[in-house]
Amino acid sequence: MIEVRFHGRGGQGAWTASLLLAHGGLKEGKYVQSFPAFGPERAGAPITAYTRISDEPIDIHSGIYEPDLVVVLDPTLLGPSVVEGLKSGGKIIVNTSSSPDEIRKQLGLGEDVEVWTIDATSLALEVLKRPITNTVMLGALLRAAGIVKLESLLEAVRERFKGEVGELNVKVIEAAYKEAKRG
Q1: For residue 29, what are the contacts with CB-CB under 8 A and spacing of at least 6?
Q2: How far apart, in whole angstroms, are the C-alpha atoms of residue 86 and residue 65?
Q3: In the chain, what are the helix, strand and coil shares in percent, each to the nearest 5?
Q4: What pTM did the predictor assign?
Q5: Distance from C-alpha of 86 to C-alpha of 89, rounded to nearest angstrom
Q6: Which residues make Cβ contacts (< 8 Å) with residue 158, sequence separation at least 6?
Q7: Helices 14-27 and 134-144, interaxial angle, to 10°?
Q8: Is 7 left (phi over 0), alpha (psi -120 to 50) or beta?
Q9: How does pLDDT run across 53-105, given as a tens digit for each residue?
Q10: Domain 2-182 in CATH: superfamily?
Q11: CA distance 115 to 180
C-alpha cells in the first residue's frame, strides 16, 4: 500500500489532486481511498488531503500518519509539519523554484528521503494561465513515484475536466512529468 499526503491551501485543488490520483488507481483495478482534512473552509486556509492506493483491499480507515509520499502544493507551507511522519525511504515533492538540495537543507532532511522539486506555479501560469498547481504536482508525483500509470491519470483528468480545460491539464501534467527534478 502507498500512502500520500498532500499539503495545500483552500482553493489550490489539493483534494481534487487526491481524488484524481485515486481515480487513476481505480482505472487500474486498484483499491483506493481519498479524503481531505481541513479546519474552517475558506480560500487560503491550510488543508491536507490523503490518498491510499493498494493492490489489496484497504482495511485502514484512519488518517495517514506515516506517508510514503508528501506533496506540497504551496511552498509557504514548508516547515516541520509537512515532513512529520514521512517514512525513511519516502519522497517529498515540492512546488518551488528552489533546488532539491536547498529544500533538503531547509527542512533538515537526511539522505534517506528523496527530494523532488518543480516550479509548478510558473508552469501552471504558462499553460493554464492560472496559478492552480494541483495537476502540475500530480505530473511531478508520478515522475517521482510511479504509483499509477501516466495514461490512467490522464484518462481520469479527461473525465473530470471536459474539453479544452481537460486538454490543458493533460498538457501541464505531461510537462511536469518531464520537468520534475530529483535531488
Answers
A1: none
A2: 8
A3: 40, 20, 35
A4: 0.94
A5: 9
A6: 166, 167, 170
A7: 50
A8: beta
A9: 999 999 998 889 999 999 999 999 999 999 999 999 999 999 999 999 999 99
A10: Pyruvate-ferredoxin oxidoreductase, PFOR, domain III (3.40.920.10)
A11: 10
